[in-house]
TrEMBL record:
Gene Ontology terms for molecular function: hydrolase activity
Protein name (database record): HAD family hydrolase
Source organism per UniProt: Marinactinospora rubrisoli
Matching Gene3D superfamilies: HAD superfamily/HAD-like
Any Pfam family the entry gives: Hydrolase
Signal peptide extent: none
Keyword Hydrolase (UniProt): yes
Length: 232
């Protein structure tokens, strides 16, 4: 067991409450680009792709049609930005306290998301989180989005983690947990405040299931105390 020194936290659904605006934006743009001919299993495709990059999500929803996906992604960003500016995305209870608690303990924090850098940065400004975290990453910064491990490995490099075992990952989707496990993180925690419920998260590889992001600091404290108490 290794002491946690870096926390990699998902944005929407884990640290920020989005109250369905992502799904609403996806539904709106898919109906637009398909002239009302959205796939009948749109909801199923959307929920299966949650946590990944938004262009990949739209490719999945639109059956792999690259042209439609790129057009939809452009419209999606415009629609979502309007919803963000209208105040539909708010801090999750306990999020700011979690950032402060991690910093107080010397644990470096990265926020990761499937949104583009432009959407991500606007969210950070609206939420007032620019100064609360050490790093914020989108798939554009890392190569691939979740469920690939690239975002977590990029955070590890930039925040100088000694190994993946020093990282705690927390997210609200199965893709977050797959990414954390594939990265080799020491803690991979599902959070029950977002896209996927307990049953779905428990089917994904994980170390813990948390009621909310506010439970992460006590979990890391317990983990690190166990490391200190272990014989050398």
């Amino acid at each position: 067991m290794t002491r946690i020194s870096v926390a990699v936290l998902d944005l929407a659904g884990t640290t920020a409450r989005e109250d369905g605006v992502v799904e609403a934006a996806v539904r709106a743009v898919v109906h637009t680009v398909t002239d009302g001919g959205a796939p009948p299993d749109l909801a199923e495709r959307f929920h299966a792709a949650r946590g990944g990059s938004k262009i990949d999500m739209l490719r999945s929803v639109l059956g792999g049609d690259e042209g439609l996906a790129r057009r939809a992604h452009h419209l999606f960003e415009q629609d979502l930005l309007h919803r963000i500016e209208s105040g539909h995305v708010t801090p999750m209870p306990g999020a700011a306290e979690t950032f402060a608690g991690l910093r107080h303990r010397g644990i470096r924090t990265a926020l990761t998301t499937g949104f583009s850098p432009a959407i991500r940065d606007r969210l950070l400004d609206v939420l007032g989180w620019r100064e609360l975290v050490d790093l914020a990453l989108s798939p554009d910064d890392a190569g691939r989005g979740r469920p690939h491990p690239d975002l977590i490995w990029t955070a590890a490099l930039r925040l100088r983690a000694e190994s993946a075992q020093h990282i705690a990952v927390a997210g609200d989707t199965g893709n977050d947990l797959l990414a954390g496990t594939r990265a080799g993180a020491g803690i991979v925690a599902g959070v029950l405040t977002g896209a996927h419920g307990r049953e779905r998260l428990q089917k994904a590889p994980h170390t813990h299931i948390l009621d909310g992001v506010g439970d992460l600091v006590p979990l890391i404290d317990s983990h690190n105390e166990s490391v200190l108490a272990s014989p050398a």
